[in-house]
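> call design_seq(struct)
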């Protein structure tokens, strides 16, 4: 019969129930605190702590955190005419350079992006000081913050301080949140894909146990005579201690008499399934966080033809949403104080930086169309600014004109045998002088003599071909004059007439081509 358990003579003490805020004392700066109820953060510290141990989750979260940290913060202002300029705000230095006394901007934004990607929420306490109401940003761990929705639908925040009590914050709080089902707090991604995380952890444990046993299959010890149980336990312990583990791999085993070790052969199918499961964890986790798996080491999906497309996909569907997620709370912080025309943008040009040849082609095209100044091009390449005022001027190739200017020049050209109009000077020049403030295209269309509007090599070659056709008799002189003035707005009608008349004095067969007989 089973024994009856002896009654204890020590009197039992009835456990006293403590308030919820005292159940866990703050043992460290980031000690977890449980909070329950609608509008509060669920206790997800166990899930996040286990999740970040997986290499796949760590790679995805690290990619998001680093991408959010490398994009510089720009505080801009929209002017009434639609142009944008840097907003010179007192708190601009805090947001762009030094959020607090112990963190750089990179460390701060990497931390809040890491918290948002792992816990679903990130918080920063806005402290006043010498630079106004936002002189310092103090990060607060999500497990120590309680979010409360008030009756008037305002939101207040409570912080579990180091003294072990809830403190209602009076200062503004910046709240970054991930995907939310109530619009108040974000859900923890690690909890939503807990199945994949649990499988990844089991695979890690299995792999660790396998290699801890010297990477060998299980063994069966065969004895030809019976030995006491104590001796069997001691023998098993000695074998594991002396020969087990990867460091003892290949050691010579000494066994008792009439004892044999027989390995249990592993199943190759099981080994393949194990590796397939481990390979499937990475794309599954990357899919949950919205990160292309090729960016976190999934070489099975990387092809020479889709590498560039994968990077563009990451920019559009992953990094751009995360940039907007980081910008939104900062806009909500600044706009009530400085106006709705102030906003924050993360500069992603560094992530999209192309190779040298591609950048040169882009800069050349933008410079030729007058979209960029030389000073702006130097800033893009981190080159020092030039003191020459010409570096702050926009330039454009003058070989192009508008259709209206070209049509006006064609209509102003006199027909064959007609006298020039009375308001057109006989030498074909403009009535007034053309200075540096005159529109080059309008001056060229009016027939002004501009020394700075010389034709380039391609245009000169095309003009010579037209003159050669005139000399050969292929093109009528009057048609040639109209063609030259239409194609080259900087050439006046009388100058084109001089070119055509000079070409007609050449004997046939002496032009650019031989006249066929």
């Amino acid at each position: 019969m089973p024994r009856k358990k002896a009654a204890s003579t020590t009197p039992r003490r009835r456990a006293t129930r403590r308030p919820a805020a005292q159940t866990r004392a703050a043992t460290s700066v980031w000690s977890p605190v449980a909070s329950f109820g609608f509008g509060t953060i669920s206790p997800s510290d166990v899930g996040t702590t286990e999740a970040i141990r997986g290499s796949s989750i760590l790679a995805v979260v690290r990619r998001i955190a680093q991408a959010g940290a490398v994009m510089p913060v720009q505080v801009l202002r929209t002017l009434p005419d639609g142009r944008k300029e840097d907003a010179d705000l007192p708190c601009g230095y805090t947001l762009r350079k030094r959020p607090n006394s112990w963190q750089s901007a990179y460390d701060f934004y990497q931390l809040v992006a890491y918290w948002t990607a792992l816990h679903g929420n990130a918080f920063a306490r806005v402290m006043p000081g010498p630079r106004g109401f936002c002189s310092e940003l103090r990060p607060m761990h999500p497990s120590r913050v309680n979010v409360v929705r008030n009756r008037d639908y305002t939101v207040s925040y409570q912080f579990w301080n180091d003294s072990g009590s809830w403190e209602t914050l009076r200062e503004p709080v910046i709240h970054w949140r991930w995907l939310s089902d109530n619009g108040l707090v974000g859900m923890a991604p690690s909890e939503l894909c807990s199945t994949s995380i649990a499988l990844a952890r089991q695979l890690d444990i299995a792999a660790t146990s396998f290699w801890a046993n010297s990477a060998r299959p299980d063994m069966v010890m065969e004895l030809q005579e019976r030995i006491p149980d104590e001796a069997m336990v001691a023998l098993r312990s000695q074998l594991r201690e002396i020969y087990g583990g990867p460091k003892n791999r290949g050691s010579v085993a000494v066994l008792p008499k009439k004892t044999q070790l027989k390995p249990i052969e592993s199943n190759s199918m099981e080994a393949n399934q194990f590796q397939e499961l481990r390979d499937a964890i990475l794309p599954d986790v990357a899919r949950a966080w919205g990160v292309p798996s090729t960016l976190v080491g999934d070489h099975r999906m990387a092809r020479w033809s889709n590498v560039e497309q994968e990077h563009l996909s990451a920019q559009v569907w992953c990094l751009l949403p995360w940039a907007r997620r980081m910008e939104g709370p900062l806009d909500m912080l600044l706009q009530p104080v400085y106006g709705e025309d102030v906003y924050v943008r993360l500069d992603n040009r560094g992530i999209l930086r192309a190779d040298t040849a591609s950048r040169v082609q882009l800069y050349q095209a933008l410079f030729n169309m007058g979209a960029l100044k030389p000073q702006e091009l130097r800033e893009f390449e981190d080159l020092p600014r030039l003191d020459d005022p010409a570096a702050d001027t926009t330039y454009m190739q003058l070989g192009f004109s508008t259709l209206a200017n070209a049509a006006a020049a064609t209509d102003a050209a006199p027909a064959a045998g007609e006298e020039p109009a009375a308001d057109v000077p006989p030498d074909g020049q403009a009535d007034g002088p053309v200075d540096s403030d005159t529109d080059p295209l309008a001056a060229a269309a009016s027939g002004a003599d501009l020394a700075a509007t010389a034709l380039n090599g391609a245009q000169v070659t095309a003009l010579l071909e037209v003159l050669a056709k005139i000399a050969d008799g292929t093109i009528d002189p009057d048609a040639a004059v109209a063609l030259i003035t239409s194609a080259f707005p900087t050439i006046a009608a009388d100058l084109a007439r001089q070119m055509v008349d000079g070409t007609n004095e050449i004997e046939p067969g002496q032009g650019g081509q031989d006249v066929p007989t």
